[in-house]
């Protein structure tokens, strides 16, 4: 398989519609901006106070005053704007973000999310994740399917929750899964894997969609 993170980011990009206001979490989600289909223009919002954020800054051309919420150097598109955190979180909490793409430590079959702390370990902290998952109209989790050989999609999260019942879609290198009232439905599968392999890598029960298709 090609680079796993690139596969995930490219598939996530296909979920975004022209004109959407989108917040990309730190890490893998930031790669999504590099894989937008031709003709699709999204407005990137960053919770530290940017609307109309551009791509990552080229090496040697960084502006020390333009960084995203993960403190990475970025650019600003024409017409973009800066504002304070209160305004930024007003946008998020007010339901003006169409989609947020976040990484995860754990997700379970009820759409519960844990992505901010591992007890006893130093991690960056909650950031804007708690606000984003309840304020955005759609929550997409972009992550590798397993971590050090252990499933990340569980029957029940074991780590402290970020929020409960908020996840709509999980996209990994193995496929695309939708959270439904009945459980996790595998809608698309990467050609390198079988449904049996996806289930083996997943603690929660996977429901195979009758309309299962190859991962787009």
Characterization of the model:
The structure is a single chain. Helix content is 15%, strand content 31%. The protein has 4 helices and 15 strands. The protein has helices spanning 4-13, 85-93, 129-135, 195-200; strands spanning 21-24, 43-46, 50-56, 74-82, 99-102, 106-108, 113-114, 139-142, 146-147, 150-151, 153-154, 169-171, 175-180, 183-189, 206-214. The strands form 3 sheets. Strands 4-3-2-1-5-8-12-13-14-15 form a 10-stranded mixed β-sheet. A hairpin with a 3-residue loop joins β2 (43-46) and β3. The longest helix has 10 residues, at 4-13.
Brief rundown of the structure:
The chain is of the alpha/beta class and 216 residues long.
Map the helices and strands.
Elements lengths: L3 H10 L7 E4 L18 E4 L3 E7 L17 E9 L2 H9 L5 E4 L3 E3 L4 E2 L14 H7 L3 E4 L3 E2 L2 E2 L1 E2 L14 E3 L3 E6 L2 E7 L5 H6 L5 E9 L2
Parallel strand pairs: 1-2, 1-5, 5-8, 6-11, 8-12, 14-15
Antiparallel strand pairs: 2-3, 3-4, 6-7, 9-10, 12-13, 13-14
Number of helices in the DSSP assignment: 4
Helix content: 10-25%
The low-confidence runs, each spanning 5 or more residues with pLDDT under 50, are none
Distance from first to last alpha carbon: 14 Å
Secondary structure: number of strands: 15
The biggest sheet, with number of strands, parallel, antiparallel or mixed sense and barrel status, is: 10 strands, mixed
Overall mean pLDDT: 94
> What is the molecular shape?
globular
Structural class of the secondary structure composition? Answer: alpha/beta
Please provide the ordered H/E string of secondary-structure elements. Answer: HEEEEHEEEHEEEEEEEHE
Strand content: 25-35%
Radius of gyration: 17 Å
């Amino acid at each position: 398989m090609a680079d796993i993170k690139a596969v995930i980011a490219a598939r996530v990009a296909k979920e975004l519609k022209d004109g959407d206001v989108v917040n990309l979490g730190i890490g893998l989600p930031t790669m999504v901006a590099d894989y937008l289909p031709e003709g699709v223009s999204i407005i990137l919002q960053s919770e530290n106070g940017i609307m109309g954020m551009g791509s990552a800054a080229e090496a040697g051309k960084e502006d020390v005053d333009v960084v995203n919420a993960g403190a990475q150097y970025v650019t600003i598109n024409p017409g973009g704007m800066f504002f304070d955190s209160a305004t930024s979180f007003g946008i998020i909490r007010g339901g003006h973000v169409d989609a947020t793409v976040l990484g995860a430590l754990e997700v379970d079959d009820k759409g519960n999310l844990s992505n901010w702390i591992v007890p006893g370990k130093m991690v960056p902290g909650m950031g804007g994740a708690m606000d984003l998952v309840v304020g955005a109209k759609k929550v997409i989790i972009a992550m590798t399917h397993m971590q050090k050989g252990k499933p990340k999609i569980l029957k029940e999260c074991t780590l402290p929750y970020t929020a409960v019942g908020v996840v709509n879609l999980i996209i990994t290198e193995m496929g695309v899964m939708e959270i439904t009232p009945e459980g996790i439905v595998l809608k698309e599968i990467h050609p390198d894997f079988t449904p049996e392999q996806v289930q083996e890598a997943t603690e929660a029960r996977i429901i195979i969609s009758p309309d299962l298709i190859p991962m787009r």
